[in-house]
Design brief:
The chain has about 160 residues and is an all-alpha fold. It starts with a helix and ends with a helix. Belongs to the SNF7 family.
Length: about 160
């Protein structure tokens, strides 16, 4: 089944229809396919516009009717091209919004995992025990400082000499 008929007839796999809403990856893939298809249509219309312009120049003043018909077709193609530009802009906006939503969902999910991990890490910790431990550490640091000060002071060698 062609891409266009899948888009307009709602084609696709039976599994996708039975599941309900598509996954973000599936929706992004379809939006990219649609962008690609519309891009190809843009290229086609641009070449058609160039051909009609060339045909209008070719007929010029010799065959005004053919030149006018070519210009009318060119104008019609330009209108279609303008509509495709608008559609592409809308699809691009929707794709970006979906990508951002998917990213936000993943970030939120990962933050939830981190919160659960932190909760698990902290479940074995008691604030009273931590406070006691910190006091013990402070006391031991004070003792170590006193020892360091005692060792670093001169052992009275300078006091023994009398000038």
């Amino acid at each position: 089944m062609s891409k266009i008929s899948r888009l307009f007839k709602g084609g696709g796999s039976a599994a996708a229809k039975g599941r309900g809403a598509p996954s973000p990856q599936e929706a992004l893939a379809r939006l990219r396919e649609t962008e690609e298809m519309l891009g190809k249509k843009q290229e086609y219309l641009e070449t058609r516009i160039e051909r009609e312009l060339a045909a209008a120049r070719l007929h010029g003043t010799r065959n005004k009717r053919a030149a006018l018909q070519a210009l009318k077709r060119k104008k019609r193609y330009e209108k279609q091209l303008s509509q495709i530009d608008g559609t592409l802009s809308t699809i691009e906006f929707q794709r970006e919004a979906l990508e951002n939503s998917h990213t936000n969902t993943e970030v939120l999910k990962n933050m939830g995992y981190a919160a659960q991990a932190m909760k698990k890490v902290h479940e074995n910790m008691d604030l009273n025990k931590i406070d006691d431990l910190m006091q013990d550490i402070t006391e031991q640091q004070d003792v170590a400082q006193e020892i360091s000060d005692a060792i670093s002071n001169r052992a009275g060698f300078a006091d023994e000499f009398d000038e």
